[in-house]
């Protein structure tokens, strides 16, 4: 049976006056039906661009997918005509964006913005779609949903707007939702609520979730599998608990050490990864992490390591991964 | 909302009063007056006594504050007085001309809106294609070409065209007929100046529409609309245009107010008896009362237009709430 989503060797570039930005540089991963897959990485490593590439929503004309394949239920989305692609968006793959404050149209009512998606895709009447809109607003925990339909985005708080965005993503019953840092712009307490809500609903409705985040703590809690991104590439992937317990890439290790953990002594100092991510217009010949890596050997600066998978599907793109692969929490 | 409207209407009073003081003093700073001009203009023998008598009749011998208060009090009672030059009531002098100017302004505005919004939109959604270049060339031409010159071209084209078609040249009528008396005669006279001014006006508005739309199309909520799989015409017409129209409304409103009193040369070309021409004549004649009333009228039009723009703003953008 075909995977729900298969991304194969995706390369996305931006042509800018200062050169070609290799925002996504050979990325492969897949998503099974109903599971939650995380994409983690520092700011600017290409997470959003990879997500926008799937829906073909890159800014024109600067952004271009130069090679690769994106198969959704076996069908290559990159080969679809514009009209067929439009029918996939919102209907089969929906997206929740990072910025709830600006992602809703300020001059249109919540009701219109919710119902128009259903009217577009489901061939149902306005009245019917309004009923469904109320049901979905209820489902995402918005009080007094009937009144909300007549309100405008500025009447709602950031957390409430993100709930509206989630209702909007769910309302056509898609099989995949891409959530691009859905909680980064929100208060910490609201963050947990929204993530719980998304996780709960995706399980209940059997929707697969691509959860983009830069927080490994979120991954451990909500994701089945995880892809760690660095400079446009996936440098480690596997089951969330494997990656969390036995990281096989120095970058992942660094990320883990910068997250507070309950199973570590309180007095342990949080570390941050020294240095800056590389300039995506001038990628080095070898591994892009070399300048910041504590495990580097001579070979690292000369050859790019491929993602090598172990039997359990845990993969790492590091020449020295064997040295890292020891249980954590003992050192 | 009614409270807001009431407040806005009350606030008009000081603005209008300021305009009144300003034009009253300014007119009297110009050397000479209407009596000198009428009796001793063009080097005729000036009988001092006759001039004095004329001044007394026109009320020019009273003190300035007295003249001012008389004028204001008259307006408050709805009596605008008589023209110092023709002696006819000001209401009569302005009435038909205001009708004509208002109609030309409305028709020019409609032309501008009907041209500018579709063209600006086409231009923005086809940015950097030949459609965009075509529209931009069309608007640059509109900006570069004075309306009166386009007016002359239109008249010539009408003459030559009808001559070629029917054998006899046809010219738009010169006599103004109100639209409810004879719409055909009325429109066949006023459509041409409306087109001539509307074109230039649409050029400004189309450029505004284009740039506002290009900016709005970069917004996050447009990306959301795309991600929802909406068809393109809904994304443009429903999601983008409504947001892009705010600055366009301002440009259109200001231009409209300007057209009411500012179409001097175009009126000349089309032989129209509009407010612009009346304005120039009344200043030239030192016709204090008429000029003052005209300034008040134009000020009122500007204030009302601004007020309506604000109401349209609130209607388009629900975040704007007036109290
Ligand atoms: N429109 C664009 N033009 C040029 N470069 C772009 C554009 N959009 C993104 N990039 C570049 O692509 C790279 C990846 O950006 P992306 O937005 O995917 O990062 P991200 O991982 O989502 O970061 P964040 O956590 O901050 O959201 C960045 O280096 C960015 O500068
Ligand atoms: Mg991002």
Describe the structure in your own words.
The complex is a heterodimer of chains A (331) and B (323). Chain A has helices at 47-55, 82-88, 110-122, 126-139, 145-150, 158-170, 188-205, 216-222, 240-245, 250-257, 321-324, and strands spanning 5-16, 19-31, 36-40, 63-72, 75-76, 93-96, 176-180, 208-213, 225-230, 233-239, 308-309, 315-316. By secondary structure, chain A is an alpha/beta fold. Chain A has a domain at 226-261 and 272-331. Chain A has an eight-stranded mixed beta sheet, with helices on both faces. A four-stranded antiparallel beta sheet of chain A has the order 2-1-4-5, with helices on one face. In chain A, helix 7 (188-205) links the parallel strand 7 and strand 8 (208-213). In chain A, helix 3 (110-122) packs across helix 4, helix 4 crosses helix 6 (158-170) and helix 6 (158-170) packs parallel to helix 7 (188-205). Chain B is mostly helical and 323 residues long. Chain B has helices spanning 2-29, 34-40, 48-58, 64-76, 90-125, 130-144, 147-166, 183-216, 220-227, 232-262, 264-269, 275-284, 288-316. Chain B is globular. Chain B starts with a helix and ends in a 7-residue tail after the last helix. Chain A binds chain B through residues 55, 57, 59, 86-91, 94-95, 97, 99, 102-108, 116-117, 120-121, 152, 154, 165, 168, and chain B through 218-221, 223-231, 234, 238-239, 242-243, 316-319. Adenosine-5'-triphosphate is lined by residues 14, 16, 21, 23, 41, 43-49, 59, 62-63, 181, 214, 280 of chain A.
């Amino acid at each position: 049976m075909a995977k729900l989503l298969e991304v194969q060797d995706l390369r996305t570039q931006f042509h800018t006056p200062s050169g070609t930005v290799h925002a996504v540089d050979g990325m492969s991963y897949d998503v099974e039906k109903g599971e939650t897959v995380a994409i983690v990485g520092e700011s600017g490593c290409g997470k959003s661009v990879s997500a926008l590439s799937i829906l073909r929503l890159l800014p024109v004309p600067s952004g271009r997918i130069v090679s690769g394949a994106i198969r959704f239920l076996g069908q290559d989305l990159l080969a679809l005509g514009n009209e067929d692609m439009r029918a996939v968006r919102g209907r089969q793959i929906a997206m929740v964006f990072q910025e709830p404050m600006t992602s809703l149209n300020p001059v249109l009512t919540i009701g219109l913005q919710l119902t128009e998606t259903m009217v577009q895709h489901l061939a149902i009447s306005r009245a019917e779609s309004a009923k469904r809109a109320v049901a979905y607003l209820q489902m995402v925990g918005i009080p007094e949903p009937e009144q909300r339909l007549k309100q405008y985005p500025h009447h709602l708080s950031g957390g409430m707007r993100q709930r509206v965005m989630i209702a909007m993503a769910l309302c056509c019953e898609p099989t995949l939702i891409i959530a691009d840092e859905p909680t980064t712009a929100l208060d910490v307490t609201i963050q947990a609520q929204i993530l719980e809500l998304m996780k709960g609903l995706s399980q209940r409705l059997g929707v697969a979730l691509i959860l983009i985040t830069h927080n490994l703590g979120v991954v451990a809690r909500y994701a089945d599998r995880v892809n760690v991104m660095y400079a446009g590439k996936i440098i480690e992937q596997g089951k969330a608990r494997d990656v969390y317990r036995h990281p096989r890439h120095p970058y992942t290790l660094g990320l883990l050490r910068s997250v507070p953990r309950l199973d570590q002594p309180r007095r342990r100092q949080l570390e941050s990864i020294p240095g800056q991510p590389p300039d995506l217009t001038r990628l080095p010949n070898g591994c892009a992490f070399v300048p910041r890596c504590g495990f580097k050997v001579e070979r690292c600066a000369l050859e790019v390591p491929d993602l090598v998978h172990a039997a359990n599907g845990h993969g790492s793109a590091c020449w020295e991964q064997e040295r890292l692969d020891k249980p954590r929490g003992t050192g | 909302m009614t409270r807001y409207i009431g407040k806005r209407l009350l606030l008009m009073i000081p603005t209008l009063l300021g305009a009144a003081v300003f034009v009253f003093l300014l007119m009297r700073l110009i050397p000479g007056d209407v009596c000198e001009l009428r009796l001793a203009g063009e080097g005729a023998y000036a009988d001092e006594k006759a001039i004095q008598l004329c001044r007394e009749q026109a009320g020019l011998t009273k003190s300035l504050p007295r003249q001012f208060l008389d004028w204001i009090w008259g307006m408050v009672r709805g009596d605008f007085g008589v023209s110092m030059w023709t002696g006819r009531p000001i209401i009569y002098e302005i009435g038909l001309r205001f009708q004509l100017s208002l109609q030309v302004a409305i028709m020019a505005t409609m032309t501008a809106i009907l041209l500018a919004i579709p063209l600006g939109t086409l231009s923005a959604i086809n940015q950097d294609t030949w459609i965009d270049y075509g529209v931009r060339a069309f608007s640059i031409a509109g900006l570069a070409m004075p309306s009166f010159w386009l007016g002359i071209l239109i008249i010539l084209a009408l003459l030559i065209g009808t001559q070629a078609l029917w054998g006899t040249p046809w010219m738009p009528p010169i006599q103004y007929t109100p639209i409810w008396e004879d719409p055909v005669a009325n429109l066949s006279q006023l459509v041409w100046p409306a087109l001539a001014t509307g074109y230039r006006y649409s050029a400004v508005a189309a450029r505004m529409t284009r740039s506002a739309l290009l900016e709005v199309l970069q917004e996050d909520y447009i990306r959301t609309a795309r991600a929802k799989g909406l068809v393109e015409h809904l994304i443009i017409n429903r999601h983008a245009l409504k947001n892009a129209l705010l600055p366009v409304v301002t440009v259109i409103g200001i231009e409209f107010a300007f057209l009411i009193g500012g179409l001097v040369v175009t009126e000349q070309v089309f032989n129209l008896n509009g407010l612009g021409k009346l304005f120039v004549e009344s200043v030239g004649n030192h016709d204090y009362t008429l000029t003052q009333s005209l300034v008040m009228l134009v000020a009122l039009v500007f204030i009302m237009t601004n007020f309506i723009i604000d109401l349209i703003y609130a209607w388009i953008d629900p975040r704007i709430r007036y109290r």
